[in-house]
Write a structure and sequence with these properties.
209 residues, mainly alpha, de novo design (two linked rop proteins), rod-shaped
Length: 209
């Protein structure tokens, strides 16, 4: 009788421990899943801020091309390249909501567009009359502010992506990620072509020792 009672007591204790472990695992899984959902939503929302500013960037670039074209008609190849890459970037931006693969394509195209935009500014800065014109200065000011907003939105987006990617990699949250197919997202890494060019021009104009 005593042996039977002891056995029943031990069995209950074992089941209680197992039940407690299952409960803890279940609670952790639910909490972690909800955290993944929240981070994924934050990434989408913060990417939409980048999206808005990239649209503005795409709208301003043709104006810059037209202004510079009036002074540097011989830069035809550069103008055509800017126009072509801008078109690809716009297509990639339209498709970027479909997943991380499309975002990677967008990042690549925007990086190329930034490089060409930097070259375009170099050409513009080599014409004093163009550089001094009111239209050019206003356009560059607006473009510079747009690029600054892109960088601010990019930093916020990357912070959310960094947290999400860490959660995907770390154990045991990686088990939840694998079970519900949460994947790492690409960082949005593009430079500010206007600021970079301003530094470059300043360096060229500084007195030599």
């Amino acid at each position: 009788m005593n042996l039977l009672n002891i056995t029943d007591h031990e069995s209950f204790a074992v089941f209680a421990v197992i039940g407690g472990i299952v409960f803890v695992v279940l609670v952790y899984g639910i909490v972690t899943y909800n955290r993944f959902v929240k981070l994924r939503q934050l990434c989408k929302e913060s990417f939409s801020d980048i999206d808005t500013e990239l649209v503005r960037r795409h709208d301003l670039i043709p104006n810059l091309v037209n202004i510079v074209k009036g002074y540097a008609k011989h830069e035809r190849e550069l103008f055509e390249s800017v126009t072509a890459i801008r078109g690809r970037a716009m297509e990639a931006l339209a498709a970027s909501e479909h997943g991380s693969r499309d975002q990677r394509a967008l990042i690549q195209q925007e990086g190329l567009l930034g490089q060409l935009l930097s070259k375009l500014v170099v050409v513009a800065e080599s014409y004093p009359d163009l550089k001094a014109s009111e239209n050019y200065r206003k356009l560059m000011e607006e473009l510079s502010m747009t690029e600054d907003r892109i960088q601010a939105a990019r930093r916020f987006f990357n912070a959310n992506v960094r947290e999400l990617n860490s959660l995907v990699e770390q154990f045991p949250s990686s088990l939840v990620a694998r079970s519900f197919k949460f994947e790492q997202q690409p960082f949005f890494d593009i430079e500010n072509p206007i600021k970079r060019e301003a530094v470059s021009v300043a360096g060229l104009n500084s007195p030599q020792a």
